[in-house]
User: Fold this.
Amino acid sequence: MSEVILEMRNITKTFPGVKALDNVSFSVEQGEIHALVGENGAGKSTLMKVLSGVYPHGSYDGDIYFEGKECRFQNISQSEEVGLVIIHQELALIPYLSIAENLFLGNEREKLGIINWNETVLRTKELLEKVGLNESPNTLITDIGVGKQQLVEIAKALAKKVKLLILDEPTASLNETDSEKLLELLLQFKKNGIASILISHKLSEISKVADSITILRDGATIETLDKHKDDITEDRIIRGMVGRDLTHRFPPRETNIGEVIFEIKDWNVYHPLHEDRKVSNNVNIKVHRGEVVGISGLMGAGRTELAMSIFGRAYGTRISGKALKNGQEIDISTIDKAISNGIAYATEDRKSYGLVLIEEIKDNITLANLGAVSRNGVINEPKELTVTREYKDKLNIKCSSILQLALNLSGGNQQKVVLSKWLFSNPDILILDEPTRGIDVGAKYEIYTIINQLADEGKAIIMISSELPEILGVCDRIYVMRDGKIVGEMPAKEASQETVMKHIMFDQEVPAP
Amino acid sequence: MKTLSNLFRNNIREYGMLIALIVIMIFFYFMTDGILLKPINITNLVLQNSYVIIMALGMLLIIVSGWIDLSVGSIAAFIGAIVGVMIVKWEWNWVLAIAIAIIVGGLIGAWQGYWVAYLKIPAFIVTLAGMLIFRGLTLVMVRGESIGPFPEGFRNISGGFIPDFFNYEGFHMTTIVVGILVSILLIIADIRTRRNQLKYGFEVTPFYFFVAKQVLLTAAVMGFCYLMASYKGIPNLLVIMFPLVVAYSFFTTQTVTGRRIYALGGNEKAARLSGVNTDKLLFLTFVNMGALAALAGTVVASRLNSSTPNAGEGFELDVIAACFIGGASASGGVGKVIGAVVGAFLVGVMNNGMSLLGVGIDWQQAIKGFVLLLAVFFDVYNKNKGS
Assistant:
């Protein structure tokens, strides 16, 4: 039995009107990977904020002991001083500063306020090597992908002599390979005696690396499972999280596929800045009425770029190729035209591209189709309220009122608002880009159910997802993309995670459809 | 009691600046021994602030869409100069001259809007350039001197009053009739809104609060009209300004285009991906601003009865301050027309009150600066507390 490095005892934290944490106890042993799971709003982030001093001592009840000493952090820098580093879901890197500058931001190698660049670069190289990132210390953050940025964050934590690393959904925006790499890194840290707390919605990776798992629900600890003692299964974790049995993670569906409704032929797209780089290369895809088609592939394979270029050329330059709807060529050269031709695109990044966060739910839902609730350019408010209420009920958006700001909703409910917006535009073809990213198991199930309903209504759905089980569980047919090309196509029934992964990773002949 | 304090807290955010305006008015009322609310001074207050309010309507849209326009003072001066040349030097009909002036203003707005919306140059830079360009062109137009005087019809835009259809010695009865009509319309509009809210199951303020609000509002409108009636009645300018305020208020809250401007300022990328032509919309807000700055420039020329090279200097600051004091957010997406109007009056009452007290222009500036800072702090503080 190894030593306990962190112990949080009887933590209770209340916000006006809500008890976010109710008598939560939580402990981490030296050099273990401890997963913290729970639905959105279960209190995971609040617990970590209490731990790292975002909520200062005195604003909560209960005690925190780190390495046997009682801690009363007033702010984050005090918790970092003892070796507690938290890496947030939204990365906190400055895009136009270099990797080296970011690594030592707030922790500069300096004397009398003058930076020692030689030492900075040297130390950066060492740290980058430790996390296995092969980039020059002078590279700007904006020039590297999300996966590498995540590694920079971890290197930054190492620079602070971390003893306990807290990762909040580190793989949410990573593809399978990068996620894999990150998890490997955690295991390596473990060998070096660095403990980690891993907050994640991805149960597969938790069961892979975690030594113990603590489940939170509604601000209370449900149970802590130990890998060596308990029999841990995904079903058991899910049961603990939602408090009910999710016998099926994907709702069943009777597929009823009709004729081809939408087709993209010989689609070529170039990068908007590097004009000689092809991001979509001779892509041909089609989708039938009532069909859910998945597009699988790595981050950077060109899936989002393809989808956005189809959606009114929202991405890319020198776009060529044909778009056909019901066999007729259609003009989708602007977003407006794409929408009026019955195409909708729900973005992967709902906060930056999907929602106007400082506006009401109602305003967000009607934004893409204000014409339907107005006459002569004047909005018919009663009508607007009626339709947004309908969507709130239909998609089960949990909110106090449709006049609530989108800002204050949880991720799953924000996603439902984005979906409502596009459903209200009444599309025939709905492109969903990572529709369940960063949302909890219960909300995911609801989103899948909505997708099924839409397919039943005869709409065609194109779903981009980085989660293979989701692609396999929801789709009827799967395309695999790599380097801007479609490199595989298969019916979901015949596919397995392994076969899809093979197409993603290796160069193979495109099987005849 | 808890509901009452809640009510108060919720409404202080909504009506905070209105309350501040009233407090400042009471303060100056006593400090100036009542001169502030003398009929002639109230009329002056309206006339003095008309151009700030007219331009604030356009500025609000620009600020809501996430940008700023520093050039409006210079545009107003330039248009004033053009109007002067057309009417005084070329002896053109003044109605035609105004129409041309507003079109030219729109074109200037289009010029700036094109740089901002399509060539993606930050508005701060484009309009800073515009501020210099149009001030310079004003000097070119008037060659460093004043052009005037203007014919009576043109002067009456800012100096005239609506005719009286009744004959009461020393009292402008028509003004009172208009006041009554406006009050009734306001009450009807509010009742309709409330009925709709109830019908759709929204929480509304308690009935006694609603009634109290109507009584206060009517009292304010009627008091205002009474004061004006005791002087010369409703100024012509108010006949231009009031419908403009109502129209822009309606535009921002009830129309598709208005809604889209808020979406554009709140999250441009999301708005664009929702099919909003964000570039065109931004371009049009600048065209609108140019046209309103032109109208304001015409009013200034009419009021000064001449086109002068330094007309409208520093107006941009008063206009921008009015919008921010009125609760607009510097990062875009938030702001109300009524807020900007209240903000403009707040700045106006302070200018007027301090002038009456004989405070020098130096201290006036400094004090206005502090008030702007405090007002925005109050707003931000309230918002943070609310969330």
